[in-house]
Amino acid sequence: MDIVKSKSGINWLKYASPKTFYPLAGQLIPWFSVGAAVLIVYGLYLGLLVAPTDFQQGEGYRIIFVHVPAAWFSMFLYLLMAGYAILGLVLNAKLSHMMAKSIAPTGAMFTLVALVTGSFWGKPMWGAWWVWDARLTSELILLFLYIGYFSLQSAIDDTNRADKASAILAIVGAVNVPIIYFSVKWWNTLHQGASISLTKAPAMAAIMLKGMLIMALGFWLYSIAVILARVRCEIMERDSKAALFRQDI
Predict the structure, then answer these.
(1) Rounded Cα gap, residues 81 and 1, in angstroms
(2) Fewer beta carbons below 10 Å: N end or C end of the chain?
């Protein structure tokens, strides 16, 4: 077992067990929660009070400090959920299935936030709360995939069958994420292109970019804290079901 220890002497593989992961998650939650609160407050301060008014969109553009990071994490968390689903199927790892299940509600929440804030942004820009634009439509499909995932989990009583069925749905649905991302390039859409690119200079002022990235980091820490709290609940719930099953036997 020493081969899985890091240079610090910590055996990280042991945390693949729900029993040992549970206390670790409890220790990490407060740190990520405080970090998320600080970064989100600071990001909102930069976005709402410090960043200058956009010369084209006026004050209405400020919704991007919530909308854009939420849209990023709606996609990122889905891919993360699908990744854990793959690990759960390939390795038959219970904790991986629990992590995937715990990610789904947070991903759905960010998807809903992205859609709602996008509507508030779209009304003054496009003159309508909703248009069947390629990116908006594929983002809406993403919300349905999230809902379908945890609905399928709830609909099947047998935990193992529920994990496998929902994992397959998560993996298949992952094809929608690149469709969302590349939709503005593949089709003629109303939605503007990416403001941040790895190959081009940012199409926004530095303070705007700073505020957006800080908000994104705050959303990331928030996601970790909430997912860890939810997976602890999932571990307790499954342990309780297993104990009741043993009593019935």
Answers:
(1) 28
(2) C
